[in-house]
Specification:
With 179 residues, the chain is of the alpha+beta class. It has a single domain, classed as Cyclic phosphodiesterase (Cyclic Phosphodiesterase, Chain: A). The protein has five helices and eight strands. Strands 1, 2, 3, 4, 5, 6, 7 and 8 form an eight-stranded antiparallel β-sheet that branches. Strand 3 and strand 4 form a beta hairpin. Helix 2 runs antiparallel to helix 3.
């Protein structure tokens, strides 16, 4: 089974992120169909959750809640066929993603190689195949005000890969410490 490790925003940041995502979807005439906004950290295949839990707990133990910033770029990831907003490649989020990936590889878990930058998925390309911007990969950079905003990450979760039921989506939650 496929599991994904994702970072989730607090309520205020999620509302602001939804506003930005709706604005981008309207601008490029995309259908928004994501469950909620998140930052994708890693993908794991065929793992026992009892073995995964101590590894993620060990990596996340020293970290407190932190903030991330969006880059102005919209890009299409050809591997998982999502249209994404890029996260700036600096700070705690980059270090956490790298540490989780390294520790999982050292522990013998089969993970998906993560060559793409960190991102917030906007929408699936399958629903938007006839879109002009997608066909021509003609995405412009977003407003400068988006780059100035910061979004607070409060927890990391492990999700099942392909689940249609929203209640069964999250398998394990890891809350980060307060400041």
């Amino acid at each position: 089974m496929k599991y994904e490790i994702v970072a989730l925003f607090d309520d205020v940041s999620e509302n602001h992120m939804d506003y930005i995502l709706n604005k981008v979807c309207r601008r490029y005439k995309l259908n928004k169909n994501t469950y909620n906004t998140y930052v994708h950290l890693n993908t794991i295949y065929d793992v026992k959750l009892e073995e995964l839990d101590p590894i993620i707990t060990k990596v996340l133990k020293p970290y407190k809640k932190f903030k991330v910033q969006l880059d102005n770029d919209v890009f299409v990831d050809s591997n998982n066929k999502f249209i994404n907003l890029k996260i700036e490649n600096k700070g705690y989020i980059n270090r956490i993603a790298r540490n989780i990936s390294d520790l999982l590889n050292l522990s013998g878990f089969s993970t998906k190689p993560n060559n793409t930058p960190l991102y917030v998925p906007l929408t699936n390309t399958i629903n938007n195949r006839k879109n002009y911007y997608l066909r021509n990969n003609n995405f412009e950079s977003l407003d400068a005000s988006i780059k100035e905003a910061s979004f607070k990450i409060t927890r990391i979760e492990v999700w099942k890969g392909h689940v249609n039921n929203k209640k069964d989506f999250s398998v394990k939650k890891y809350e980060l410490r307060d400041y």
